[in-house]
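Retry 2 of 3 after timeout on previous attempt. Resubmitting structure tokens to design endpoint.
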């Protein structure tokens, strides 16, 4: 016999919010007798949750980013609700994360409505305990939505449910609350993380980033294998924007997700040629806000460049990940790449047989990651060259083979998932971090 629930009992969004109700279990446990708590408490929980400053402090909130306003997609893009200050025409609404590590509580609170896309890149060391505190600041444009948020480390092999971030089996973080995730990663490689509450919406809105684990044997290897040694590394996170979905969240509407299509293909949160613009400058020490890339105030909340600079002979590691909803194929013109890892797993067969392979194109299904290494070719003065602030270089394109995802350029400058590899005879300084 099927019992019909009254229609007023609960909405779909309200049901999903119940995932956050797991936090209430903590309050219930506090009310139990000491003997009962000793029975229910997991062994070693006190050690896992011992107070210590987090290695990273993330804040979740909403915000606006810039995408080329033409060709327009009326009425969805550019969104007229977006801030349009001189020189900063932000026009696409997002949800996202911010790295607020070291900021005072007042400055953390001031970052509400200042999310970034893509989410902060971070990395950890193999077998080292790492703590990430998530603080939910709420959504300024949509105060009617009281969504909790989580950090789900996609593909993490040794997560216990308590720290997994899937809200039905672990915890979610309500507005104005914090939770600290504890990780002890054992498997090197390239991973992703994202919010897992209403994940179709939240991932697409921008709550996703890239994380990788450095091997304990050598942090300049992709895996525990000298054949994966590199001189430089670059993260390449592929995401997508369906303009109607972003407009709908800003305008209190519900999109029909079965109509999903890609209007903008993003590489590290930008489209070509903005992918070539410099990195942002980190957090302003006075306001806590992001410092925009030099000369590009409209890219303030899209801090990651995809430009690859290297000297001839450098071993360059590309960490690809696809957290859009459609398969993608990235091609590097004129240079072969050796794929050494897939989904944070080294390309090794039984008995350690090397199964890496050489290719100029890498196809990625949604949720996949690939690690590929190329050797920068010798500088050729007779080949096509160009000059920038570093020097003269040979350019090579790295682009999505689906033309509409890589280079929809028209006179207004609209682009997609494309960037450049610039190979110099010398003079490129050592990296201070990934993507520098």
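Retry 2 succeeded. Sequence:
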């Amino acid at each position: 016999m099927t019992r019909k629930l009254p229609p007023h009992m609960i909405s779909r969004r309200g049901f999903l919010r119940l995932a956050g109700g797991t936090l209430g279990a903590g309050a219930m446990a506090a009310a139990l007798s000491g003997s009962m708590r000793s029975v229910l408490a997991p062994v070693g929980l006190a050690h896992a949750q011992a107070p210590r400053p987090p290695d990273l402090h993330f804040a979740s909130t909403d915000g606006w980013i810039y995408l080329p306003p033409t060709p327009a997609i009326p009425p969805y893009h550019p969104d007229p609700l977006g801030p349009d200050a001189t020189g900063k025409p932000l026009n696409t609404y997002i949800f996202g994360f911010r790295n607020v590590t070291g900021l005072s509580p007042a400055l953390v609170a001031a970052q509400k409505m200042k999310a970034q896309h893509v989410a902060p890149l971070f990395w950890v060391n193999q077998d080292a305990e790492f703590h990430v505190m998530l603080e939910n600041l709420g959504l300024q444009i949509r105060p009617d939505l009281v969504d909790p948020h989580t950090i789900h480390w996609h593909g993490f092999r040794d997560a216990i449910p308590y720290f997994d971030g899937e809200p039905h089996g672990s915890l979610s973080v309500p507005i104005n609350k914090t939770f600290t995730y504890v990780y002890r990663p054992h498997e090197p490689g390239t991973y992703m993380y994202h919010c897992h509450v209403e994940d179709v919406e939240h991932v697409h809105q921008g709550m996703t980033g890239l994380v990788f684990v450095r091997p304990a044997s050598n942090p300049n290897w992709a895996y525990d294998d000298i054949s994966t040694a590199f001189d430089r590394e670059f993260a390449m996170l592929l995401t997508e924007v369906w303009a109607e979905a972003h407009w709908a969240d800003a305008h209190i509407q519900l999109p029909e997700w079965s109509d999903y299509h890609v209007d903008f293909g993003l590489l590290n949160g930008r489209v070509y040629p903005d992918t070539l613009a410099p990195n942002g400058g980190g957090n302003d020490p006075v306001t806590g806000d992001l410092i925009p890339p030099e000369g590009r105030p409209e890219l303030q909340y899209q801090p990651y460049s995809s430009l690859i600079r290297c000297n001839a002979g450098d071993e360059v590691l590309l960490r690809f990940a696809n957290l859009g909803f459609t398969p993608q194929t990235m091609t590097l013109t004129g240079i072969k790449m050796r794929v050494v890892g897939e989904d944070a797993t080294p390309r090794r067969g039984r008995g350690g047989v090397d199964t890496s392979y050489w290719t100029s194109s890498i196809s990625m299904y949604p949720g996949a990651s690939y690690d590929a290494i190329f050797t920068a070719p010798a500088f050729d003065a007779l080949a096509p060259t160009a000059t920038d602030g570093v020097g003269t270089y040979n350019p090579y394109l790295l682009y999505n083979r689906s033309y509409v995802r890589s280079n929809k350029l028209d006179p207004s400058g609209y682009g997609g998932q494309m960037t450049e590899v610039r190979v110099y005879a010398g003079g490129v300084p050592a990296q201070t971090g990934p993507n520098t």
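Attempt log closed. Residues 158 and 185 are 7 Å apart (CA to CA).
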